[in-house]
Amino acid sequence: MKKFNSKYILGISMISALGGLLFGYDWVVIGGAKPFYERFFEITSNAGLQAWAMSSALIGCILGAVVSGMVSDKFGRKKPLLLASVLFLVSALGTGIVSDYNWFIFYRIVGGVGIGLASALSPMYIAEVAPTSIRGKFVSLNQLTIVIGILAAQVINLLIAEAVPAGASDEMIRNSWNGQTGWRWMFWAEAVPAFIFMVAILFIPESPRWLMKAGMPGKAFPTLNKIGGEDYAREEMKNIEATLDDVSEKVDFRNLAKPMYATVLLIGIYIAVFQQWSGLNTVFNYAEEIFSAAGYGVSDTLFNIVITGSVNLIFTLVAMFTVDKWGRKKLMLFGSLGLAINYLLLGSAYFFQLQGIAVLILVLTAIAIYAMSLAPIVWVILSEIFPNRIRGAAMALATFALWVACFILTYTFPLLNEALGASGTFWVYAAICTLSFVFILLKLPETKGKSLEEIEKELVN
Q1: Cβ neighbours for 193, distance < 8 A, ≥ 6 positions apart
Q2: pTM for the complete prediction?
Q3: Under a CB-based contact definition with an 8 Å cutoff, are residues 400 and 253 in contact?
């Protein structure tokens, strides 16, 4: 069995995965700030402005995902990750400074571009440096840092927010410390990890697979040599070169239209969309509505959100230890079927007007299932299945589809909730999960234990 420089692989993977931490923090911090900035901007009676404040960052995510393909193919993985870190820093500072709603939206979109870049590039970079036998575990580090970022945002929101008296009016909340200043510190706190990420990214090497594709094998060898030794480096370079029969050919989105890539693109786009339309992210984005429907007040909701984040972290760790043992497909099947059953029960709980602990337990169970299956495994699969030649463009397309799906999910949840009630909404998500179970069973190949080049030969025809 080959020996690898685990400390080195872990170090560069963790630095890249800081993009995931900022992704998670920026994505969720708005949920805790929501009860306060809505009162500050006086939009509590305008559902359209509320939805735009919550979903505007997704426009940036979509833009960042599209741009990630172009910049990663042209400039590599490292420089775009550095750009993402700068965008996170600007967004964190800007969102907290402004007192105008439109500027608030602008900085949320800036942060969204950072999320779009990081969500595509961080797992891609890790997959391209991690050896086959431990790739799943290391790519899952990105999801772990996303979850840590989510939990950090939830804990910081709870620590910053002062207790809100039961029955407090909108005016009372708006004039409180929470309503004037507290929500700003929730966003400003992100500037610290953003600055650390910006500095740390300068010390990692460029992806050796991108260097090979760009015609710079001399620069790829030292990194591969440091990862697994000289024999490993030469073997990897030979395998990579075999999939790059013409490295001078420009890689762009037009190559994705070739029939040979149809199957792999279908799988990638479907699982990316399904990760969002499985419905779980509504729990993080609309926690206030979900828990208030179960009878919880604002302060109780903030505490419950921290509990959900803790469960999310614990079961993401479980996924890291099972992804290279159980395999990707089994975990995806478990997640889709498990969520379908859970949503049937959760919808029934709302239908029969159950409140309190019963709903909380079902929500936590759904998070546990999602955290050890769809949340990390989709990113692992996306980072693995696309061929070397089109990986940047294909990853951008799949990530673009994911964020469009996320935008639709986020924007439609209040509409579904109003039209169908909480029960009907979760039953819709149950139906989506059931259909996806069938797709995964029939179409998704197992990628555990296969090199990126072996996966390419299997899926490209």
Answers
A1: 18, 21, 22, 25, 149, 152
A2: 0.76
A3: no
Specify which of 115-119, 345-349, 432-436, 456-460 reaches the highest per-range mean pLDDT.
432-436
DSSP, collapsed to helix, strand or coil, labels residue 211 as helix
8 Å CB contact between 244 and 114: no
Q: What is the largest CA-CA distance in the chain?
A: 69
Spatial distance between the Cα atoms of 386 and 394, rounded to a whole number of angstroms: 7
Tokens matching residue 316: 């993401």
What per-residue confidence (pLDDT) applies to 195? Answer: 97
Residue 151 and residue 311 in contact, taking contact as beta carbons nearer than 8 Å: no
Reported as a single tens digit per residue, the pLDDT across 374-401 is 988 998 898 888 887 787 788 888 988 9
Inter-residue contact 293 to 350 (CB < 8 Å): yes
Per the CB < 8 A criterion, the answer to whether 347 and 316 are in contact is no
Tell me which DSSP letter residue 355 carries. Answer: -
Q: Is the dihedral of CA 445, 211, 72, 5 positive or negative?
A: positive
CA distance 271 to 281: 15
> Range(s) for CATH 1.20.1250.20 in the chain?
6-204+250-459
SS3 122: helix
CB proximity list for 35: less than 8 A, separation 6 or greater: 164, 173, 178, 288, 298
> CA quadruple 318, 322, 323, 329: dihedral positive or negative?
negative
Query: What's the pLDDT at 52?
Result: 87
Pairwise pLDDT comparison (163 vs 439), residue with the higher score: 439
Class of domain 6-204+250-459: mainly alpha
Ordered DSSP codes for 69-109: HHHHHHHTTHHHHHHHHHHHHHHHHHHHH--SHHHHHHHHH
Residue 182 structure tokens: 């507290």
Q: Is the pLDDT of residue 285 over 80?
A: no
**CA quadruple 434, 266, 285, 19: dihedral sign:** positive
State the DSSP H helix or E strand holding residue 194, giving kind and residue range, or none if neither. helix 191-200
